[in-house]
Amino acid sequence: MKKAQLVIRILLGFMLVIFGLNKFLQFMPMPAMPEAANEFMNALVNSGYLLIIVALIEVIGGIMLLINRYQPLVLVMVFPIIVNAFLFHLFLDPVGIGGAFFASVMNVFLLFANKESYASLFKAK
Q1: What is the structure's pLDDT at 125?
Q2: How far is CA 116 from the centre of its chain?
Q3: Which own/partner contact pairs does 85-91 have at CB distance under 8 Å and 24+ positions apart?
Q4: 78, 61 Cβ separation under 8 angstroms
Q5: What Cα–Cα distance (Å) separates residue 52 from each residue in 11, 49, 61, 76, 89?
Q6: How confident is the model at residue 9 (pLDDT cuts 50, 70, 90)?
Q7: CA-wise closest residue to 71 among 115, 22, 103, 23
Q8: Taking Cα atoms as reference points, which of 118, 83, 76 lies closest to residue 103?
Q9: Are 88 and 40 in contact (CB under 8 A)?
Q10: Which of 23, 98, 96, 104 lies closest to 60 in space, CA to CA?
Q11: Residue-range domain boundaries for the chain
């Protein structure tokens, strides 16, 4: 189980760093997407800040996973980004859903592997 956690943590970390950096450096070409998906992406870019914040969280979170620091916090911070990527592909661009699905599964696996870190969040007071 520990080896699986290590491998998945490193894979998710690299995935976050690569896709986060790509938002800044655009070293991977954007594939053709349906019109609704293009409109959504344009809205993120035109906001002037949202895509930058997402990219920063991905890069910083990915680095933190790679060096194994603040893993429980990082997993919670990137969860909404990964879920949104999955839903984006599910509803707007199904062709690219594979990577988002893989990232979602890795994130959920690591969240459950670290469930003791979240125990206090679910205690009623």
Answers
A1: 74
A2: 22
A3: 88/37, 88/40
A4: yes
A5: 22, 5, 14, 19, 20
A6: very high
A7: 115
A8: 83
A9: yes
A10: 23
A11: 2-119
